[in-house]
Input
Amino acid sequence: MIKPWHIKQSVNASHGTSQRHILPSISAKSFEFITVALTGSLLSLPLMQTAQAATTYNGSVYNGSVSNDALATSEPSVVNANNVSANLFMQCATLKTDAARLACYDKAAIGETTTAGQEKKPLDLVQSFKASIDTGKPKIVLADSPAEASASQEIPASITEATILTKVGVTPAEVRQYTPLSLAYDLDKNSERGILTGRPHNPMYLMPVFTTFKRNRAPQSPTQDVYHYTSKEYEPVELKAQVSVKTKVMEDVFDTNADIWFGYTQQMHWQVYNQDNSRPFRATDYMPEIFMTQPVTANLPYGGKLRMLGAGVMHHSNGQSDPLSRSWNRVYIMGGAEWDKLTLVPKAWIHVKNESEDDPSDNPDITDYYGHGEIQALYDFGKGETLGVTGRYNLGESNGAIQFDYIYPFTSDVHGFLQLFHGYGESIVDYNHKSTAIGVGVTLNDWKGL
Output
């Protein structure tokens, strides 16, 4: 079996260091596609010749060519077929947008006329609405296929990328199978991991340097007494980290390809530089949730596409004793939409209050500061560089918050992470305190920002 690292070594050996910039840009998942193709259609060629063949397209030489000796060792028909397959992979490697590149590899690996993956049929909102009006009762209509539902949209790529994708035979729907929104929630095809397997959820990061301006040295709430931090309990610089995973509990339910998920997020503020006070964890937020996602399709203004609707329940608390105890429950609905490289995920929620006179809420006014919803925006620059923006707001109280998360890939495995926050609720104990904070560190998974 030909292994991915052999491919890399052979290309470097045949063309020197000038081509090393091509294959390192291929993700680990993409190597699976390349390996399948090479072990199938290209196995008849010696690997050195395969690498040489991969550098030519329609007679044009990139940084080498197929030698006459190499061509003589194989049947002409085999060489021509192999050249086409290898050329497609090399063209795919030049695409900068992650979604376009992965779709290109997928298509090239299994043939130009075969649809990749196990497609999910989204719920067609417009047709479902019309059918419900016509029949006088709720009726579900699934789109015939993602490709048909999206045929009117352009491929979200540059002119060069669109040209390459057209040559390979990649459709707009196949590109969208690899967008951040689709990959995060399995909107287009079932993951091979199935149910009850861990996956990334919210951002997972480690920021060794995180500082808050105008620190909350006296947290309080309407039902909790003030707690006064001493000068040694709250240093200005701390470590902030977050772990977040989700797992699919059920898939393809209700005959609509809907999925049910369980997610868990834990955010920590660690006074790791506070040696005089035994380096305590200043604040820890626990956020378990269960939610459902429903793939849908509907056109939006300016070429956008509604891709998902969902609903869930979340518990948010800090596990502290009085007077620092904070907790609340919320029920939310959400959506997911895309415009080329821009993704939007709006959420609206209701505070589920279960307090009584004998057991009052730790923070009954939390929505006055957290607001009644949020909107997440993600812009994918390509090659792993993304900018995420999350905003919360309460129209009646004019309170809220905004957070910027910027990811820059230093290598294929190490991504720098910069976070800026301004507003209320940087952690739940500070839900009614306005502050500004900044942190730098690294991301610990392939989180895209949703």
Remarks:
- The domain at 191-443 is CATH 2.40.230.10 (Outer membrane phospholipase (ompla); Chain C).
- Residues 33 and 140 are 35 Å apart (CA to CA).
- Residues 1-74, 112-117, 146-157 have pLDDT under 50 and may be disordered.
- The longest helix spans residues 76-93.
